[in-house]
Amino acid sequence: MSKGIPVFLILVLALCVTACNTKKQQSTEPEPTTAEVKKPQGYEIPRTQVVPIKNSRLGGQYELYIKLPESYSEHKDSIHPVIYFTDAIWHMDILSASAEYLMEDAVLVGISWQKDMPEDLLEEAGEHVSRYRDYSIKESSNPEHQAKYKFGQAHSHLNFIRNDVIPYVEKNYRTDASTRSYFGYSMGGNFGAFILMAKPDTFKNYILGSPTVDGDIALLSELGTTSLTKYKGFHANVFVSYGALEDELGPHVEEFVTMVKSKKDETLSLEHVVLEGSHQTVFPLAGVESVRWLSKITKE
């Protein structure tokens, strides 16, 4: 018998050395982080689609954020109320949450800002720069600002909504054309006031949150007088709100409400509320309260 080390002992020692080396190598390598194991994914609002849409008359690329109710695919013959709103990326969250509890069967249609604006304007004023042009009623008195931002194109933007957005939605989704609703806040609220006064048949229900109507009331009144004759009344339900702390804007909104009432139109129903807060802090309340108001009148 050989006096050397037994074979089985050599094998055991070899295994031990291998294990030690492996452990040593592993200890020098950093442990993978949670982010490396699984990268976080972006959150998407359930049942929401992003649809590109182009202004067929003037060009310009936009997007529609369309959220369908949970019951939409279950009931193939059902027709749903629809809420259109501007400043889509700012307003989708609050309107989605409000509708989920207060108007479960509603289709939401958010209209984005123009996506293909000149790069210099996007860098200077932000991705929302087209709202200055699209939601404003009158041109700026500042020639430099007017040349840059093209204020006063609300009529063109309304044509885009009437000729492109609404036809697309009503062709591809089961929405009730007779009860269309509009939600707008701040400049979007002013744009909604313009739609109501200029072409009230665009929507049945108008939600105007803290509308920046200062300087536009005389023109809005003139448009409203013409529409009363042309459309034989506004035939609309209107919800107007602003914040109790909006010291500068509040009196102008009150003036707008007084002007609307002065038309003495029996086909128009007006709800006017003052909410607690400033122009920034009152927005969530305006979103919830207006959808609650809308849920009631659509059930009547």
TrEMBL record:
Keyword Hydrolase on entry: yes
SUPFAM superfamilies the UniProt entry points to: alpha/beta-Hydrolases (SSF53474)
Signal peptide: 1-19
Pfam families: Esterase (PF00756)
Key words, A-Z: Hydrolase, Signal
UniProt keyword Nuclease, yes or no: no
Entry GO MF terms: hydrolase activity, acting on ester bonds
Coiled coil: none
Top-level taxon: Bacteria
Similarity remark: Belongs to the esterase D family.
Name the UniProt record assigns to this protein: Alpha/beta hydrolase
